[in-house]
C-alpha cells in the first residue's frame, strides 16, 4: 500500500511518491506534472478538474472556480451551475483527481496521503484540508508545512554539515518565509512568518489594475469573460517579462482596441507596494530566529511566482547573495511531501534525518489585569504558547478568579499577536464552574497542547474541586465521524467526475473553444471549422480515427496559440 | 535536573558541543514518539544556546567600536614596537570592559530602592527606570531575557559615551549602527532641530534602515534610547512605527515598556501640545516639555507616585500651561481626588477661553476615566459654538459607552460620511456592535438593537458579518405573535360592528390564549434564568 505526498497549491497541485532513488512526481492523465487547482462543471453536470477546467475559466466563468485555497475553512459558497460547493469540497475534487492519477500509475488502490499546507495556515484551515482529503477518500496521517517540505527536498542535496537557510515561498496566493537549520542529521525549523494574502496572483492583478487605469477603462463595464481574458493577458505579460525583459497586454473591449507595453523598470514601479509587503514577514522571521541576513548560508526560492526576476533581485539585494533556485520551484513541495512519507514510515534510507517544526501563531487566553485597588480591566490577551515554539509542545499556566463568589470561568481560546483579545482570532471557549470563594482564592490550571500536526487541545483543571474539561479546537466540526462523511459523500455521489479516458479530447475541445472566444474575424471562423470537424470525427466513434484527428487538432491549436505555453 | 544534565554535557559556551549533544539526544526523545521528553530536551537546548550567546556577546559588542577609539593609542604603541605595552593596552581595555559591566550591576540595586511604592497604586509592574510596563507576572521573569535587555542597555550607554565623529571609509556593521545612533542622539539633543519633522525624515531615510543586518539591532537600541527621551512630535512616532511595523508588534513593544505611550501617539487622542512653545529653544523650556511627556507616560502606566513628582517639578517651571493643568486634572481623576478636578479644569480654560482643543482634551480625559456624562457636557459646550469633527467623534464614543447606541450611531455615521477612511471610528463601531451583541444575549427580543448592528455593519462594509446577523427562531416566533395579535384585534373590531355576541365569544377566547402565552413565556424565562 503506497502512501502518496500531495502538494495542494493555490494555482497548481501535484502528487509524488518515494522511490529508492529519491522522490518522484506522478504525472496526471494528460502527462503533465502540474494539475491546475481549478474545478469546472460541464454540460452533463460532471466535474472537471485541471487544465480542462482552467480553459473553461474563460469560456464558462460562471461554472468554474479557482484560487479557492484562500477560502479554506470559511463558509464561502461557490455557485457553479446547479451546484453549490465550499472551498473544502472543491479541494476534495482536486485531491480526488490526483488520487486517481496515482492509482492509475501504481495499478492499485491508494488510501493514505501526506498533504502540504502553508506554514501560516491556522487551525481551522488545517482541519478543513484534512476534511477535504477525507471527502476524497484519503486518510491523512500527517500535514506538512510547505516550506518545511521544500526545505527537506533541498536539504537532502546538501553536503555540508551545518547550514542555516531561509525558504522564500511566493506561491499563487500566499507568501511564506521559513528559517531552518540543518545540522547533525537534524532539520530544525527556527521560525516562520508570512502573509496569507500575498501571491503571484496579486502581481497579476496589479498589472491588470495598471492597464485599466492607464487606459481609463471603467471597471464596471468589463464583463466576466473579458475579465478572464485580461487576466490571461496579464499572466502572459508577466511571463514575457521573465523570459525576455518586456511584455505586452492587449484587449478589445466593445470594439475599442487597447494595448500597453511593459518593461522591467515599469513593472517594478507597478508592484512596488507588493514588494514592500514582502519585507515585514522576513524581518519578523529573522528576529524570531535571532538571526541576521548575513548569518544565513542560503536562500531558497520556491513557488511559481519566484520565477519573476524582480523577486530574485529583491532577494539578492536583501541578503547579499544570489538565491538558490535549482530545484524546480513548482515541484519542490510535492517532492518534500513524498520524503515526509518516507520519514514517517522510517524508510531505511532516511532513518538518520529528524525533523522538528514550530507553532506559527501565538496561542493564549483572555485575562483581566489589575489596575490598582481591586479594579480590573478585562480583555487582555495572555499568551500560553508563543509563536515559533518548537512542537509538539504542552504548556500550562495558572490563573485565578477575580471577584468574590465567582462561580463561572470562561476560558476563551485565542490565536494572534495583538495585546487585546478582541483583535485576535477566537478559536473556541471552555466554561467551568468553581465553588464560590474569595477573589483570587479559586485557582485553575489551563493547559494548551499543540500536537505535531498543529492541532490544539485545551484542558482546564480546577484545583479545588478537581473538575477537568477538555476541548479540541474546532470551529466547524473536527474530524468527521463516519456518519458525517457518508452523509457528505451521499450528497456528492451523484456528482460524477468526468471519466479520465476522455480527458485529452475534452481538453482539446475546451482549448479550442477558448481560442475561439479570444479570436476575431477570419481566425475565429477557422477555429470554428476545426472544432466542427473534430466533433464530427468523434461522433463516428472510431478510436483510431479519433486519435489521429486529435493529434492534428492539437498541432493546429498550438500553432494558433503562439509559442507561449500556458 | 538542570539543562546540562539533560544534554549530558559539561556547562559550556561552545555552540557546536551543545548542538551535537542535542542531536544525539533527539534520537532518543523523538518528537513523534515522545512529546514530553522532546519538550524537556528542547527547552534545555534552547536555554543552553542562549547562555552561550550571551557570553559571546558580552565581549564582542564592545570590541569593534573599541578598536576604533583605541586605534591611535594602539598604533602608537605598536610603532614603538614595545610589545609589553601593547599587551598592557589590551589588558587595560579588557579590564575597563569588565569594570564597566560590574559598575552597572551596582546601579541595578540602586534602582530597586526607588521602586518602593508608598501609594497603593503601583502594583504588578516591575520597573527599572520608570517606564517599563510589563504585563506579565514578575515571577515569570526570564532571567536570560532580562540579560539580553541589559546587554542592549550597556551597548547603548557605551555608544552614547563617545561624541560624534566622522564615518570611516569601510565601516563594519557595528560601526555603522553606532554612527547612526550617535546621529540620532545628536538630533534629539539639538533643541533647535529636534521638533522639526523634516530633520527626522532626513535621518530616517538613511540607507542603514534598509539593511536588515543592522535594522534589527537598531530597533532595539532606538527603543531603549526613546524610553528615556520620549519628547518627539507625533508624526515622528508615526514614521518610526511605519518603519518598524510597531502597529503589528504590540506585544514585542510591551516587553520594551513603551507600547502604551506609542499607541497613544499613533491614535488620534489629544496629547499635550508643543504649539505654545514653538520656537522656544531655551533649555529650561525643553526640560519642562520633557517633564510633561514623562507625566503622560507615568499616568499611562499607573505610576501615580512618579507622576506626582514630575508634576511638582513641572509646575515650578511653568504655571500658565493649560495642557499641564489638564494633565493635573487627569492625575486627580486617576487618584480619586475628584473634587479638585473641576477647579483645575476651570483654571485651564480661564487661561485661554477660546481654545477648543483644551476643552477637547478635558473631555477626552473624562472619557478615559469613564466620566461619560461630563465628557458629553464639555463636548456640547464646544459643539454649540463650533462644529468640530474630533469633538463629535468623542461625543459619539461617549454615547456608545453610555449605551445610548442610537445617538452614538447617528453621530458616528455622520462623521464617517465626511471622512470615510477614518479607521479609528470604523474600529470603534465594530467594537460597539460587539457590545450590542453581548447585550442582546440577555435581551434577545429587542429587534431595534439587531437593526442597529446591521446598520453598523453596513456603514463599515463588514459584509461577511452582516450575513451572520440573522433572525433566529425566537425572533420569528415573536414577529408572528405580534402579527397575530394585530390581526385578531382588527377582526375583533370588525366583529363588534357586525355581530356583538360573536365578538364577546371571540374576545374571551382571545384572552384565554393570551393568558396561556404569558404563562408559557414566564416558564421559559425562569428556565433560561436557571440555565445561565
TrEMBL record, chain A:
<keyword id="KW-0547">Nucleotide-binding</keyword>
<dbReference type="InterPro" id="IPR042030">
    <property type="entry name" value="HscC_NBD"/>
</dbReference>
<dbReference type="GO" id="GO:0140662">
    <property type="term" value="F:ATP-dependent protein folding chaperone"/>
</dbReference>
<keyword id="KW-0346">Stress response</keyword>
<keyword id="KW-0597">Phosphoprotein</keyword>
<dbReference type="InterPro" id="IPR043129">
    <property type="entry name" value="ATPase_NBD"/>
</dbReference>
<keyword id="KW-0067">ATP-binding</keyword>
<protein>
    <recommendedName>
        <fullName>Chaperone protein DnaK</fullName>
    </recommendedName>
</protein>
<comment type="function">
    <text>Acts as a chaperone.</text>
</comment>
<dbReference type="Pfam" id="PF00012">
    <property type="entry name" value="HSP70"/>
</dbReference>
<dbReference type="InterPro" id="IPR029047">
    <property type="entry name" value="HSP70_peptide-bd_sf"/>
</dbReference>
<dbReference type="GO" id="GO:0005524">
    <property type="term" value="F:ATP binding"/>
</dbReference>
<comment type="similarity">
    <text>Belongs to the heat shock protein 70 family.</text>
</comment>
<dbReference type="InterPro" id="IPR013126">
    <property type="entry name" value="Hsp_70_fam"/>
</dbReference>
<dbReference type="InterPro" id="IPR018181">
    <property type="entry name" value="Heat_shock_70_CS"/>
</dbReference>
<keyword id="KW-0143">Chaperone</keyword>
Automatic annotation (TrEMBL), chain B:
<dbReference type="InterPro" id="IPR011990">
    <property type="entry name" value="TPR-like_helical_dom_sf"/>
</dbReference>
<keyword id="KW-0812">Transmembrane</keyword>
<keyword id="KW-0472">Membrane</keyword>
<keyword id="KW-0802">TPR repeat</keyword>
<feature type="transmembrane region" description="Helical">
    <location>
        <begin position="479"/>
        <end position="497"/>
    </location>
</feature>
<feature type="repeat" description="TPR">
    <location>
        <begin position="322"/>
        <end position="355"/>
    </location>
</feature>
<dbReference type="InterPro" id="IPR001623">
    <property type="entry name" value="DnaJ_domain"/>
</dbReference>
<feature type="transmembrane region" description="Helical">
    <location>
        <begin position="503"/>
        <end position="525"/>
    </location>
</feature>
<dbReference type="Pfam" id="PF00226">
    <property type="entry name" value="DnaJ"/>
</dbReference>
<feature type="region of interest" description="Disordered">
    <location>
        <begin position="104"/>
        <end position="138"/>
    </location>
</feature>
<keyword id="KW-0235">DNA replication</keyword>
<feature type="domain" description="J">
    <location>
        <begin position="2"/>
        <end position="63"/>
    </location>
</feature>
<dbReference type="InterPro" id="IPR019734">
    <property type="entry name" value="TPR_rpt"/>
</dbReference>
<keyword id="KW-1133">Transmembrane helix</keyword>
<dbReference type="GO" id="GO:0006260">
    <property type="term" value="P:DNA replication"/>
</dbReference>
<protein>
    <recommendedName>
        <fullName>J domain-containing protein</fullName>
    </recommendedName>
</protein>
<dbReference type="InterPro" id="IPR036869">
    <property type="entry name" value="J_dom_sf"/>
</dbReference>
Amino acid at each position: 500500500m503506497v502512501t502518496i505526498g500531495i502538494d495542494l497549491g493555490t494555482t497548481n497541485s501535484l502528487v509524488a511518491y518515494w522511490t529508492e532513488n529519491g522522490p518522484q512526481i506522478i504525472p496526471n492523465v494528460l502527462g503533465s506534472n502540474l494539475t491546475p487547482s481549478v474545478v469546472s462543471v460541464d454540460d452533463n453536470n460532471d466535474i472537471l478538474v485541471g487544465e480542462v477546467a482552467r480553459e473553461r475559466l474563460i469560456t464558462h466563468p460562471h461554472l468554474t472556480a479557482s484560487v479557492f485555497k484562500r477560502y479554506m475553512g470559511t463558509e464561502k459558497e461557490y455557485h457553479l451551475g446547479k451546484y453549490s460547493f465550499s472551498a473544502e469540497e472543491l479541494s476534495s475534487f482536486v485531491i480526488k483527481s490526483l488520487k486517481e492519477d496515482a492509482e492509475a500509475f501504481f495499478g492499485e488502490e491508494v488510501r493514505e496521503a501526506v498533504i502540504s499546507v502553508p506554514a501560516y495556515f491556522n487551525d481551522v484551515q488545517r482541519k478543513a484540508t484534512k476534511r477535504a482529503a477525507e471527502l476524497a477518500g484519503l486518510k491523512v496521517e500527517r500535514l506538512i508545512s510547505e516550506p518545511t517540505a521544500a526545505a527537506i527536498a533541498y536539504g537532502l542535496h546538501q553536503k555540508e554539515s551545518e547550514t542555516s537557510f531561509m525558504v522564500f515561498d511566493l506561491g499563487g496566493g500566499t507568501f511564506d518565509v521559513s528559517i531552518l537549520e540543518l545540522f547533525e542529521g537534524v532539520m530544525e525549523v527556527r521560525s516562520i512568518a508570512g502573509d496569507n494574502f500575498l501571491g503571484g496572483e496579486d502581481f497579476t492583478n496589479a498589472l491588470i489594475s495598471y492597464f485599466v487605469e492607464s487606459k481609463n477603462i471603467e471597471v464596471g463595464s468589463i464583463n466576466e469573460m473579458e475579465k478572464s481574458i485580461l487576466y490571461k493577458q496579464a499572466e502572459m505579460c508577466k511571463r514575457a517579462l521573465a523570459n525576455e525583459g518586456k511584455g505586452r497586454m492587449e484587449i478589445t473591449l466593445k470594439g475599442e482596441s487597447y494595448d500597453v507595453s511593459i518593461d522591467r523598470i515599469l513593472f517594478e514601479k507597478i508592484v512596488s507596494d507588493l514588494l514592500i509587503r514582502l519585507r515585514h514577514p522576513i524581518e519578523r522571521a529573522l528576529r524570531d530566529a535571532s538571526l541576521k541576513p548575513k548569518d544565513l548560508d542560503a536562500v531558497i526560492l520556491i513557488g511559481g511566482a519566484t520565477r519573476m526576476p524582480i523577486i530574485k533581485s529583491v532577494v539578492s539585494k536583501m541578503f547579499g547573495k544570489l538565491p538558490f533556485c535549482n530545484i524546480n520551484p513548482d515541484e519542490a513541495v510535492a517532492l518534500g511531501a513524498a520524503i515526509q512519507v518516507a520519514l514517517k514510515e522510517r524508510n531505511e534510507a532516511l532513518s538518520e534525518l529528524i525533523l522538528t517544526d514550530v507553532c506559527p501563531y501565538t496561542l493564549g487566553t483572555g485575562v483581566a489585569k489589575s489596575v490598582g485597588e481591586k479594579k480590573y480591566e478585562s480583555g487582555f490577551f495572555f499568551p500560553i504558547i508563543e509563536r515559533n515554539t518548537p512542537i509538539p509542545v504542552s504548556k500550562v499556566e495558572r490563573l485565578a478568579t477575580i471577584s468574590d463568589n465567582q462561580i463561572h470561568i470562561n476560558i476563551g481560546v485565542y490565536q494572534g499577536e495583538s495585546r487585546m483579545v478582541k483583535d485576535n482570532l477566537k478559536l473556541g471557549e471552555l466554561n467551568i464552574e468553581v465553588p464560590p470563594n474569595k477573589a483570587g482564592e479559586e485557582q485553575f490550571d489551563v493547559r494548551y497542547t499543540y500536537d505535531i500536526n498543529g492541532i490544539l487541545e485545551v484542558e482546564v483543571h480546577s484545583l479545588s474541586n478537581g473538575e477537568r474539561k477538555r476541548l479540541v479546537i474546532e470551529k466547524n466540526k473536527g474530524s468527521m465521524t463516519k456518519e458525517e462523511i457518508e452523509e457528505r459523500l451521499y450528497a456528492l455521489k451523484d456528482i460524477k467526475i468526468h471519466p479520465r479516458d476522455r480527458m485529452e479530447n475534452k481538453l482539446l475541445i475546451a482549448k479550442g473553444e477558448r481560442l475561439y472566444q479570444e479570436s476575431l474575424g477570419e481566425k475565429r471562423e477557422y477555429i470554428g471549422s476545426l472544432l466542427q470537424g473534430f466533433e464530427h470525427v468523434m461522433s463516428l466513434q472510431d478510436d483510431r480515427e479519433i486519435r489521429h484527428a486529435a493529434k492534428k487538432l492539437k498541432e493546429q491549436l498550438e500553432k494558433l496559440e503562439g509559442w507561449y505555453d500556458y | 535536573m538542570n539543562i546540562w544534565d539533560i544534554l549530558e554535557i559539561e556547562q559550556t559556551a561552545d555552540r557546536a558541543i551543545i548542538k551535537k549533544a542535542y542531536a544525539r539526544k533527539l534520537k532518543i526523545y523523538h518528537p513523534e514518539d515522545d512529546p514530553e521528553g522532546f519538550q524537556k530536551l528542547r527547552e534545555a537546548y534552547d536555554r543552553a544556546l542562549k547562555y552561550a550567546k550571551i557570553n559571546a556577546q558580552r565581549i564582542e559588542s564592545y570590541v569593534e567600536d573599541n578598536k576604533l577609539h583605541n586605534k591611535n593609542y594602539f598604533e602608537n604603541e605598536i610603532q614603538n614596537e614595545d610589545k609589553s605595552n601593547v599587551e598592557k593596552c589590551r589588558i587595560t581595555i579588557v579590564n575597563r570592559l569588565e569594570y564597566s559591566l560590574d559598575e552597572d550591576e551596582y546601579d541595578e540595586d540602586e534602582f530597586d530602592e526607588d521602586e518602593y511604592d508608598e501609594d497603593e497604586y503601583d502594583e504588578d509592574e516591575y520597573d527599572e527606570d520608570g517606564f517599563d510596563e510589563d504585563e506579565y507576572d514578575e515571577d515569570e521573569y526570564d532571567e536570560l531575557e532580562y540579560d539580553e535587555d541589559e546587554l542592549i542597555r550597556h551597548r547603548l550607554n557605551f555608544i552614547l559615551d563617545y561624541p560624534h565623529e566622522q564615518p570611516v571609509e569601510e565601516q563594519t556593521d557595528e560601526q555603522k549602527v553606532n554612527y547612526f545612533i550617535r546621529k540620532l542622539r545628536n538630533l534629539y539633543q539639538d533643541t533647535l532641530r529636534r521638533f522639526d519633522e523634516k530633520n527626522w525624515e532626513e535621518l530616517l531615510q538613511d540607507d542603514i534602515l534598509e539593511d536588515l543586518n543592522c535594522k534589527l539591532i537598531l530597533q532595539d537600541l532606538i527603543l531603549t534610547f526613546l524610553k528615556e527621551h520620549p519628547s518627539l512630535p507625533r508624526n515622528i512616532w508615526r514614521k518610526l512605527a511605519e518603519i518598524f511595523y510597531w502597529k503589528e508588534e504590540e506585544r514585542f513593544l510591551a516587553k520594551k515598556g513603551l507600547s502604551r505611550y506609542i499607541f497613544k501617539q499613533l491614535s488620534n487622542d489629544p496629547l499635550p501640545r508643543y504649539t505654545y512653545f514653538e520656537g522656544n529653544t531655551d533649555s529650561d523650556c525643553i526640560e519642562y516639555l520633557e517633564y510633561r511627556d514623562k507625566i503622560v507616560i507615568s499616568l499611562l502606566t499607573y505610576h501615580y507616585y512618579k507622576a506626582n513628582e514630575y508634576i511638582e517639578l513641572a509646575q515650578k517651571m511653568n504655571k500658565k500651561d493649560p495642557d499641564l493643568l489638564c494633565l493635573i486634572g487627569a492625575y486627580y481623576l486617576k487618584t480619586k481626588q475628584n473634587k479638585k478636578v473641576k477647579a483645575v479644569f476651570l483654571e485651564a480654560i480661564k487661561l485661554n477661553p477660546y481654545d477648543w482643543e483644551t476643552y477637547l482634551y478635558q473631555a477626552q480625559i473624562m472619557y478615559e476615566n469613564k466620566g461619560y456624562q461630563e465628557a458629553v457636557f464639555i463636548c456640547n459646550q464646544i459643539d454649540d459654538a463650533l462644529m468640530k469633527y474630533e469633538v463629535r467623534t468623542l461625543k459619539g464614543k461617549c454615547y456608545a459607552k453610555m449605551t445610548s447606541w442610537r445617538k452614538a450611531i447617528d453621530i458616528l455615521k455622520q462623521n464617517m460620511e465626511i471622512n470615510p477612511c477614518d479607521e479609528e471610528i470604523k474600529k470603534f463601531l465594530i467594537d460597539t456592535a460587539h457590545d450590542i451583541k453581548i447585550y442582546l444575549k440577555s435581551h434577545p427580543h429587542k429587534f431595534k438593537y439587531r437593526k442597529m448592528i446591521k446598520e453598523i455593519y453596513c456603514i463599515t462594509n463588514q459584509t461577511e458579518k452582516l450575513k451572520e446577523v440573522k433572525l433566529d427562531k425566537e425572533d420569528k416566533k415573536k414577529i408572528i405573535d405580534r402579527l397575530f395579535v394585530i390581526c385578531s384585534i382588527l377582526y375583533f373590531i370588525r366583529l363588534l360592528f357586525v355581530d356583538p355576541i360573536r365578538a364577546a365569544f371571540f374576545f374571551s377566547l382571545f384572552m384565554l390564549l393570551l393568558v396561556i402565552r404569558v404563562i408559557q413565556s414566564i416558564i421559559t424565562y425562569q428556565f433560561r434564568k436557571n440555565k445561565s
